[in-house]
């Protein structure tokens, strides 16, 4: 069971008290529990917390956020008020839509004087390109087809179309926020960016991944793993090794 309510979840205690913080931002339509296995593995090297967006799971009665910066702001305020904000440099990870929320979170952190050791973005185009992308489907059946093509929200959960249908309200809200997002061409973070993706992702290709050099004044490294848009589920150990190798040596 999650150890806190509100924005911050921790499903696995860190291996030691001295591990650096890792903040994880889920993809559209997902709750924090979708990253339970991921967090358990990351807890070997990081004090790992997962952000729980409003409008889902134990925050179902709360209205979903209308913008991605709103999600980042809520998460940042919660993190700054938590015991995990020790002033140590942080690593921030986001998958798909969560990558953009993670980017906005990193901007807030840097503006507040909190050091971002590494921004890790996964299966997402750079913030400056989001406004150019076609909007997501809004009709139920088209959206269900889109979700099936993504092979998410977690392949096992989305095996049934009726199960997918239950996720539509929060997914629609997340996609509205995503499709409304825009980012100025000159907006950058200073943190180095580690870009991850699946080599068979039908929606986010190498051009999208390499475009993250627009979003930082720091270094950018791109790593591809076998798989599609939700390649993370099959590559957790490999991702953990890359994250630890990048974040813990800076």
From TrEMBL:
Domain of life: Bacteria
Domain Thioesterase: 21-242
InterPro entries xref list: AB_hydrolase_fold, TEII, Thioesterase
GO annotation terms (biological process): lipid biosynthetic process
Catalytic function, reaction form: a fatty acyl-CoA + H2O = a fatty acid + CoA + H(+)
Family: Belongs to the thioesterase family.
Record's protein name: Thioesterase TesA
């Amino acid at each position: 069971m999650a150890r806190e309510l509100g924005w911050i979840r921790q499903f696995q205690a860190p291996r030691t008290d001295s591990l650096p913080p890792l903040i994880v931002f889920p993809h559209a339509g997902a709750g924090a529990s979708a990253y339970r296995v991921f967090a358990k593995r990351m807890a070997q090297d990081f004090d790992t917390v997962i952000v729980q967006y409003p409008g889902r799971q134990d925050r179902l009665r709360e209205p979903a956020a209308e913008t991605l910066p709103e999600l980042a702001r809520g998460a940042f305020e919660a993190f700054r008020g938590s015991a995990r904000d020790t002033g140590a440099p942080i690593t921030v990870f986001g998958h798909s839509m969560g990558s953009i929320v993670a980017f906005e979170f990193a901007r807030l952190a840097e503006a507040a004087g909190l050091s971002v050791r590494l921004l890790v973005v996964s299966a997402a185009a750079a913030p400056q390109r989001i406004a150019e992308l076609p909007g997501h489907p809004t009709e139920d059946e088209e959206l269900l087809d889109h979700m099936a093509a993504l092979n998410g929200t977690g392949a096992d959960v989305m095996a049934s179309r009726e199960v997918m249908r239950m996720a539509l309200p929060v997914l629609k809200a997340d996609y509205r926020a995503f499709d409304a997002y825009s980012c100025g061409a000159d907006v950058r973070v200073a943190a180095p960016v580690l870009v991850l993706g699946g080599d068979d992702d039908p929606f986010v290709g190498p051009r999208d991944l390499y475009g993250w050099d627009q979003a930082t004044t720091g270094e950018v490294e791109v790593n591809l793993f076998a798989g599609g848009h939700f390649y993370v589920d099959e590559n957790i150990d490999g991702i953990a090794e890359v994250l630890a190798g990048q974040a813990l040596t800076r």
